[in-house]
Amino acid sequence: MKEMINVALPKGRLGDRVYEMFAKAGYRCEELENPGRRLTFENPEVGIRYFWVKPSDVAIYVEKGAADIGVAGKDILLEYRPDVYELLDTGLGKCRMAVAAPKSFRDDPRKTLRVATKFPSVAKGHYSSAGREIEIIKLNGSIELAPILGLSDVIVDIVETGSTLRQNNLEVVETLFEISARLIANKSSYRFKGGSINLIKSGLNAAKGEIR
Predict the structure, then answer these.
(1) Is the domain defined by 95-177 classed in CATH 3.90.1200.10?
(2) At residue 1, does pLDDT exceed 70?
(3) Number of Cβ atoms within 10 Å of the Cβ of 15
């Protein structure tokens, strides 16, 4: 029996691509491909156990040790700053964190800037470093609506293609950082299961170019 590694996968399209990478790396799990009502899926022959979680929860499961490893977006890692090891940039889920505003917007530094975002820590860090006074408006969805209805001056959000912004007469005014999905590990797990985790890391790194 191989040492079992617990893996937190993000639900959704990104998670499907992440699992495809794991499968190509030699960690296929037939249970996961025919899930039924199961919540965990394992293949003891290769020493892997998967479970799906909300993308923003992956880092929590890994940090707290419920998962040995997981795959989380760089946006989540920079927002929540979990105490984990970042092992590999998978190259999946590429997008960017950006400031966007109505095309007619002109910043007046004499006024407090109203910023709508799902990422308050990222936004505060960015504007604090620039010495800009802001008011954070924390939202959980439809961020683009905030400046349209006058709730905020700008938004800080993930931008993939920019089509939603363009359709709503918004534009990117500043890119904060590039985002992609990262393989992360629980620090204690890495100490005691480092050999197995590094084998997975190497397999994923080799499979990177095969996933589109």
Answers:
(1) no
(2) no
(3) 21
